[in-house]
Design a protein that fits this description.
The structure is a single chain. The chain is α+β, with helices and mostly antiparallel strands. The protein has a 3-stranded antiparallel sheet. A hairpin with a 2-residue loop joins strand 2 and strand 3. The radius of gyration is 13 Å and the shape is globular. The model has no long low-confidence stretch (mean pLDDT about 85).
Length: about 70
């Protein structure tokens, strides 16, 4: 049996390059934001992973600033 409800949408995880493209900034900027805890991220081994919904929320709330 599937544990997902009908209205739950599975969200795709994106990598560092994809989130940089999504926000129109460089990968170095994303790395700097990670070090400064300005952006929500997860670690998968040595890779960083991001949820677009969390990135959008941070942008809407003005939490990501250069």
């Amino acid at each position: 049996m599937d544990n997902n409800t009908d209205n739950e949408v599975l969200e795709r995880w994106v990598n560092l390059e994809e989130v940089a493209n999504y926000l129109s900034v460089s990968k170095d900027t994303i790395r700097a934001w990670i070090k400064q805890d300005k952006i929500p991220y997860y670690r998968a081994g040595k890779m960083y992973k991001f949820k677009i919904s969390e990135i959008d929320e941070y942008v809407r709330n003005g939490k990501i600033t250069e």
